Hints:
Blueprint: H1 5-20, H2 29-32, H3 34-44, H4 48-61, E1 67-68, H5 69-76, H6 80-84, H7 87-96, E2 99-103, E3 115-119, H8 121-128, H9 144-159, H10 165-178, H11 183-190, H12 194-209, E4 215-216, H13 217-224, H14 228-240, H15 244-247, E5 251-254, E6 263-266, H16 268-276, E7 291-292, H17 306-318, H18 321-333, E8 340-346, H19 352-363, E9 367-371, H20 372-375, H21 382-400, E10 406-410, H22 413-416, H23 426-443, E11 448-453, H24 461-466, E12 469-473, H25 478-488, H26 494-503, H27 508-525, H28 531-541
Parallel strand pairs: 8-11, 8-12, 9-10, 10-11
Antiparallel strand pairs: 1-3, 2-3, 4-6, 5-6, 7-9
Amino acid sequence: MAQDIKIKILDSIGKVYEVSKDCRLEGQYLKKIENELSFLSTYFRTTNNQAFFIALVFALNYKGDSVDLNDLIDYLNCNPMAILKHSDDLEHLYARGVFNKKKSRHRINLSGANDQFTINDKISEAILKNKPMPDFRQEKMTDFLLFLQKLSELVQQRNEQEIATFDLFSQTDDLLSRNGHFPLIKKIDALKLGTENSLIYLYLLWQTLLGNGSTDIGITVSSIFDKPTKQVSRMQKFLTGDHFLIKNKLIEIVVSGFFNDAEMKLSNRSIDLINDCGIKLFINMQKNDNVIKPTDIQERKLYFSEAEMDQLFLLKELMHEQKLQETQQRLAKKSLATGITVLLHGAPGTGKTEIVKQIGRESNRALMKVEISQSKSAWFGESEKIIKTIFAEYKSFAAECERTPVLFFNEADAIFSKRREIGNYSVAQTENAIQNIILEELENFDGILIATTNLTNNLDNAFERRFLFKIRFQKPNHVIRAKIWKSKLPFLKSEDCMAMAEKYDFSGGQIDNVIRKSEIREVIRGEKVKPADLITFCNEEVLAEKRSKMGFVIK
């Protein structure tokens, strides 16, 4: 190989290709190309037999196709059993990285019958550039993310039927054995997960790092296993909680309203374990619809009574980061609960939801918003699991945030009302179970939770002790209403605002409705709203209540 490697290799491959045509793998065919095979085996660092198949696959690939057993049988015009005798050589070349292999989608399902081989493009590139055979010794990886990406690519190959499950597990096992230096692989090895469970676990980790909070179980199972019986078997283990990863609290099932939509996610134990290994998980809940970032909240001026403002001022001061940390440290030293739990209750339209948003904006805290009506699943028994999932997700989300976020239960009337007599009433049984779970979660809660409810006299006594702040919102009196009118319609005289406030016993939300109609009217008609229009809007807002003419004129 002192002269031109490229010419000598191509000449040798060409000679092997020509002589082997219709050779039937019989007689003296190898002797005719003994010199060429000897040269090729030295270059490729293989046996003569393996060099023979490298030459054939290389040449046939350059005719434009991948090569399967049927192609070799046709070209050599040999008995199929004669090729099968050399299957170990083909597998060895694949394992060494000389060949790439994928599965044909149009063949019968027999071992090896669907394998299609192509020469590694690094080898063809080396030959054409007159370079030595590349070294395919597998080195240890230094980047754990590249390791996870490689595993994911293998799963993708299996999903696209380019490799079989057997090949997937074989290559996974090889990757795991060569990369035991990574801290997480050491922990996985200590947990004795085995190849299959390690692959599922690491694939789920990769999906999590990509920003998927949970991963579809059915899609994952069908991507990894090529046989339907295995897919069904693994799916059942996940759904019944009998899977090794579930029993060892490494993953959790995310409950869905539909059987086929079940998903899985990393458990809190896994998140702690992974963080300990220096891998930071960013589940990216900030992209989710239920998270409100403080920068997305528009500033609004709100008006409350003096009694309400006293409590709200204390709460807003507590939400400042330094004050919160000092408070929680002091409470912890005295063995008192460190969680900040707040219940805002009272008449609708009084600003309960809006004040929560403003607290989040002013304290620079994200809100993880929970609409209870969306959590009450029609599937009996699932609502309780969803509530548990909400608290688990909040804990994970809080670990990602620089400042403790707010878990915001909006319009939580159903779960804070007095518990019902169960009897045979399944809905009552479900709602009571949800309440019990929330009461249990609140016992050890160390974050910030704010709940709003329109209940005034129907609050369950069991919740009173669990909430540190219990702020009751009443409909604003005429003085507060006048301030609201003036802030919304600054062109009105103060005496006119007071007159409207005294005439219409509106909440802040109802006043907002009148203002919104005014804005719509101006956009549609292209003219300023007249006093008579405001009166009409106010009368429309009270629906069927007795309406009377206003006893004053707005000038």
